[in-house]
Amino acid sequence: MTYTLNKVKDQIIEEVKNSIDKSIENGSFTLDELPEILLETPREKQFGDFSTNIAMQLPKLTKKSPRFIAEEIVKNFEKSNTDVAKVEIAGPGFINFTLNPDWIYSILNDIKKLSKDYGKTEYGKGKKVNVEFISANPTGPMHMGNARGGAIGDGMASVLAWSGHEVVKEFYINDAGNQIEKFGQSLEARYLQVNGVEVEFPEDGYKGEDITVHMNEFTQLYGNSYVDYDSRERREIFIAYALEKNIEKIKEDLSGYGIEYDVWFHESSLYEADEVAKIVKELTDKGHTYEKDGAIWFKATDFGCEKDDVLVRNNDVPTYFAADIAYHVNKLRTRGFDWSIDVWGADHHGHVARMKAALEAMGLSGDDLDVIIMQLVRLVRKGETARMSKRQGNMVTLSDLIDEVGKDAARFFFNLRSPESHFDFDLDLAVEESNENPVFYVQYAHARISSILRQVEEDLSTIQVDYALLKEEEEKELIRILAELPYEIISAVEKMDPSRITRYAMDVASNFHTFYNACRVRTEDKKLMKARIELVKSVRRVLKNVLDILGIKAPERM
């Protein structure tokens, strides 16, 4: 794929390296190891298009002043090998690069040529990545926390795919363990109550209305024939019935949210294949466990963790941690993924180091697992906070949210901030049709462009486009931001933060509105009009690609 902006950056970095090599060859200074050369975009335009502080990093290594090093680099810099027009030194040793004015026009050719593929790169080189997100307990409806995890996880999977990774999106169904036991107890109590048997509801059971609905429907199908059943057998029947209903509803809600998974992985399958027991045995055989108080413990402290963790309780029941190790080994070893990315809630933060330690103990690399820690969001409606609690039953569900604000607003708002940030989700703002509403602002930019293009009546097909006519600063700034898309996608992958794409979409929309207010598209100068129409088409294509990445509609009319 053509990747103009990074080609420009790569040219500059490579020539800076060549300049340093020449300085060493000329005896200006010596250097055993060169640190990474980074380019930044200066905040002030008078400092050029890019800047590097490499000269500020070398004094201790070269025994020379930053200014002297910068002067040597500039003296040996061959502009003819790059798109650089001017190289200058600022302050104590910053090196600023100003590009040839014409370089930005190649961006518009790239966008026109690549169209729906503009922004895609081969950065990931086909690396196989498993992105596991939401993975809610299937004991009730999807809630607000699941909604944010869905937007983050799906956005992360999208930028990975756009950057050349082979991506599999996975939902881990927690259909085993203590929460399922409580689920069964809750269903059983409601069934008996529905059928006139006075029993106490479990104090820590699931009190949501969905539990009652399930047992009312079950009773309509089968009556009271299970009242006299063995309790254990009865709960297993209820669990199987309700889990199927819940998982079906989860899939339905997520489809309405624009999320389709490649794999639905059942935790129970790990037990059915005896994988959890095999993991515990392998860790024991490798000398990474010990017994204490009748339980089997993992020696997490041997791998730098603060404390050891129980793998098997003293009642011979494996812990969730043991199953989680088996699950990640299944992904990285059995199924052969190169990289596993999980989206977890903030309450699981302390679990990350232990999981990485367990992978190391299993002979895998902890670096092959990355976890995006996601903070909770406060839902605000008319200044009041909506409470959420799956067990108490007074939560806001994902389907409620979509019904109120729509899929697009929900996905956009949940990716407005980086995953580790707390923020308030303003329901009133999310449905407001104004520039204050960020998703409306971006979608309106796309619709506005579509309207502009529909109104062009002149036949300009015979006019050769001349991008050099786009000389206004608003035009050039708009093209520069269009050039950033591939770079922003790669940055979102490197920082594991898909909110960068949301913010980028807002920047594109903002720069477009600034351009449109400053530069008339329909003008008497047909050649200039042709160039501006092509620019506007490029903006529409970039906005469409960005909204596709975010899983959000790009409307033609609003």
Can you characterise this structure?
Its EC number is 6.1.1.19. Residues 10-99 form the Arginyl tRNA synthetase N-terminal domain. It is an enzyme of class 6 (ligase). This is Arginine--tRNA ligase. Helix 8 (209-222) packs across helix 9 (231-256), helix 18 packs antiparallel against helix 20 and helix 20 (499-518) runs antiparallel to helix 21 (526-550). This protein has helices at residues 4-25, 54-57, 59-62, 66-76, 105-114, 144-162, 178-194, 209-222, 231-256, 267-272, 275-285, 320-334, 351-361, 398-405, 407-414, 427-430, 438-454, 473-483, 485-494, 499-518, 526-550, and strands at 50-52, 84-90, 94-99, 128-132, 166-173, 263-266, 289-292, 295-298, 309-312, 339-345, 369-374, 377-381, 384-385, 423-426. Among the domains are: 4-99, Gyrase A, domain 2 (2-Layer Sandwich), CATH 3.30.1360.70; 105-123 and 434-550, Isoleucyl-tRNA Synthetase, Domain 1. It is flat. It is α/β, with parallel strands linked by helices. Strand 4, helix 6 (144-162) and strand 5 (166-173) form a beta-alpha-beta unit.
